[in-house]
Amino acid sequence: MASLELCNASDVDPGTSKLVELDDYPPLAVFNVDGEYFVINDTCSHGDASLCDGEIEDGEVSCPWHNAKFCIKTGKALTFPAVEAQKSYETSIVDGKIVIDI
Amino acid sequence: MTDKHKITLSGPEVKFDCATDDTILRAGLRVGLGLAYECNVGACGSCKFDLIEGEVEDLFPGATGIRPKEREKGKRLACQCRPLSDCKIKIRTGDEFVSKYRPQPRSARLAKKIKLTHDMVEFTFETDVPAEFINGQYAMLSCDAMPQQRAYSMSNSPNSKGVWQFIIRKVPGGMFTQYLFENAMIGDQFMIDAPYGIAHLNTASDRQIVGIAGGSGLAPVLSIMQGATEKREKFGKPVMLYGARTSRDIPSHPEIDFYNNREFEFTPIVSDRESAAVNGWSGDVGFVHEFIERKLHGALNEYEFYLAGPPPMIEAAVRLLMVEHKIPSNQIHFDRFF
């Protein structure tokens, strides 16, 4: 298991998300839900939309294209047309940086 | 007062004219642009756009395809907006949304009505111009007597004679449908604005075709079946699963005889167990998605799936195909009218 540093925790305000694109990895969406950080794959499992462009409400993110909702914490697909979960990552804060296990 | 306004797309700058009585979506599709969409009736949300400059009239402020929060941020649905001025918008585009036949309105005469079940009728319309569409697409139907338009899928194949057929189910509260059933007379004039829809027969694939339909989803799937049988050497014998509530809901008419059809395999499945027992139904009983694996002889990833019908049926079938059987989404076709 390797760790991957994504961005400064201070870059992601509560209730917002940040798209992190790194070579050799799928685009990643970093969410701040009431001060807690979560990371899931950014590209919607249904279409090709970026979930970082979606609305965040009650710990869920809605896909900007087709309104499918995902649980930010687990990546689970909550509403149609998405049926497959977003991959989610173990996330921690190390020296002010958001780090995931990969 | 102008009769049209200029719509400019942000990004790689593209401009097109939109008549004041047309929607931004349809005007874009008419000039050959691939503006993202599916349903054309405000339900799916695929045609959301950001209004950057200008003013629009929103024809359907209660549309379910867009959330109030998105409206607050200036987003609108292109299928429900008419321009009130020149506008600049940001909207998703893609080659898959470019219509092979550019949609256009044409006048049509109601030529025939055939009753298929207690609540389903096949309506045949005729136009003076060829019926140009791809199997599985739909039309927006309108007439002077009705204030609103309605989307219906063609159930036949494209043809040079200008014949457009629709199998329509009478649903409580459906104003346009009720008008067609009760008031429309043979010879009446209508407008057919078509073709629309992206869940049409994909001729780039040569996989065997499976149609999964429920209720009035019969029409587009039947059209797909006909398109597939016309290219049988390419697609093999298509298979159609049709979910009906009771055996009374399965069409039966000499002109549309599914049971003796040799062109495609027709498997009706009845969901209402009690009525099945009462009516002496000896066929399959259950939900249509439960029979997908049982009725297909090959591995599921060898097929191309076309779906139309009630949202729960589509959702159950897509869940089964994608989650349990890992069928790629590009082998599963449906237009979301929900």
Describe this protein's structure.
The complex is a heterodimer of chains A (102) and B (338). By secondary structure, chain A is mainly beta. Chain A has one domain: Rieske [2Fe-2S] iron-sulphur domain (Rieske Iron-sulfur Protein), CATH 2.102.10.10. Helix content of chain A is 0%, strand content 41%. In chain A, the strands form 3 sheets. A 4-stranded antiparallel beta sheet of chain A has the order 2-3-4-8, with no helix packed on it. A 3-stranded antiparallel beta sheet of chain A has the order 1-10-9, with no helix packed on it. In chain A, strand 2 and strand 3 form a beta hairpin. Chain A is globular and about 40 Å long. Chain B has 338 residues and is of the alpha/beta class. Chain B folds into 3 domains: 94 residues, Beta-grasp domain (Ubiquitin-like (UB roll), Roll), CATH 3.10.20; 93 residues, Translation factors (Elongation Factor Tu (Ef-tu), domain 3, Beta Barrel); 126 residues, Rossmann fold, CATH 3.40.50.80. In chain B, 18% of the residues lie in helices and 31% in strands. In chain B, the strands form 4 sheets. A 6-stranded antiparallel beta sheet of chain B has the order 11-10-13-8-9-12. Chain B has a 6-stranded parallel beta sheet with strand order 17-16-15-14-18-19, with helices on both faces. Chain B is globular. The interface between A and B is medium-sized, with 12 and 18 residues.
